[in-house]
Design brief:
eight-stranded mixed β-barrel; alpha/beta; single chain; 398 residues; 15 strands
Length: 398
């Protein structure tokens, strides 16, 4: 069957758009292989496995890639900034050597007269066992001008050390991390960490397989700009003018939604800060002497259901004045004690340096309880000394 499919070229190339929210444009296409044989749809995984079993991986790979490049030409002629993402069979990279470097596709690109910089070579590094071949493959094609992308990152057996080997220009975060990401704090933090690391290394990030507004807005909050997924468009044999207009409308629509969500988030944060300014006012105004503060904080904590803990810091030394007054604790987590220093915590410095002497942290897992919290910190004066009162606010209970 696979021999006939290759001989008769019974494969069709579909393109799925990759969009840039920042530029409000279609940034690229990913080329995807589809096959129907005698009225039966053959899944791409099954198709390429048949080729491996028949020792025809190279032939199928050459066929699909060349057809992808040839199909891309008409879109490139309409927009010279467009980029094409090409997948590479892992076994071909494992067996990469100088005698088979081009796999015919470079000549095809030369024939259609498109610059190498308009092509991204996608690599699923967790499937590649020959590290040296992988390194040589990436170095060779990067030198020619191709863009190297690390595919399906953040899942399976993908490892961070391969980044140093591949030195990718772009990382595609695997779609599994975006499923129900609004309610999955772990995946949210993984996406944020990958995006921050990539940004620090000068690597572009693409969120793959996004299907809903939450996944896109959360990604945008982490400065991810490139997106691919059903939310914008499913893979298609041809993209009509109407279909492209729909995609561009969705890009603008999600951009506006992100703006609204960001402004709402800022308003909610401002409201939260104002609320805890009021709460801290009520506590601080009761302080007359520093050695009487512990009892006051204990009484005040019980008045607020969303407060987990209260403690005081000496602004000059960063040392905690008394033991943390806390609602609940357990054996796994230990609240900070009197005399402990807080100089390693960024909110200590930010509170000291801010004009208002007020700061509220991002969400974090509390070392005192395991709950997801934010800390509201406020500087105040008492008995000719400066102190910082810290209120730990429960966002989500463990």
């Amino acid at each position: 069957m696979i021999e006939e499919i290759i001989k008769e070229e019974l494969v069709e190339i579909y393109f799925q758009p990759i969009v840039s929210i920042r530029t409000k444009k279609i940034y690229a296409f990913e080329a995807l292989t589809r096959c129907t044989y005698k009225d039966k749809v053959i899944h791409p995984t099954e198709l390429f496995q048949m080729a491996i079993d028949a020792n025809l991986s190279l032939e199928l790979d050459v066929l699909t890639r060349n057809k992808s490049i040839e199909k891309f030409k008409k879109y490139y002629l309409q927009n010279n900034d467009l980029i094409l993402f090409l997948n590479f069979e892992s076994s071909l990279i494992n067996n990469f050597d100088k005698n088979m470097r081009n796999y015919c596709f470079v000549e095809t690109i030369d024939d259609v007269v498109i610059p190498y910089k308009n092509f991204v070579m996608e690599i699923k590094e967790d499937e590649i066992s020959n590290t040296e071949a992988l390194k040589d493959f990436c170095a060779y094609y990067k030198e020619l001008g191709f863009i190297i992308a690390l595919d399906d990152f953040g899942t399976g057996n993908s490892t961070f050390d391969r980044i140093n080997i591949i030195k990718p220009d772009l990382i595609k975060i695997d779609k599994s991390l975006f499923v129900d990401i609004e309610d999955n704090q772990i995946n949210k933090e993984i996406v944020k960490a990958i995006a921050k690391m990539s940004d620090n290394l000068g690597i572009q990030v693409l969120a793959e397989g996004v299907e809903d507004e939450d996944a896109i807005c959360i990604s945008m909050k982490s400065n991810i700009n490139l997106f691919q997924g059903y939310y914008f468009c499913k893979p298609a044999s041809e993209l009509s003018v109407l279909e492209i207009e729909k995609i561009l409308f969705k890009i603008v629509e999600i951009g506006n939604l992100f703006k609204i969500r960001t402004l709402n988030s800022i308003a909610q944060k401002r409201e939260l800060i104002n609320h805890y300014i009021g709460v801290s006012d009520k506590i601080i105004e009761q302080f007359k002497e520093i050695n009487q503060t512990e009892k006051i904080m204990f009484n005040e904590l019980n008045k607020y259901g969303d407060l987990e803990a209260i403690y005081l810091i000496d602004a000059k030394t960063s040392k905690q004045i008394n033991d943390t007054i806390i609602e609940n604790s357990n054996d796994r987590f230990k609240p900070s004690k009197a005399g402990e220093e807080h100089y390693l915590k960024n909110y200590y410095y930010i509170t000291l340096e801010s004009k208002q002497g007020i700061y509220i942290t991002n969400k974090y897992i509390s070392y005192a309880s395991g709950n997801i919290c934010k800390t509201f910190a406020r500087k105040f004066e008492l008995e000719d000394n400066s102190y910082i009162i810290c209120l730990d606010i429960i966002i989500k209970r463990n």
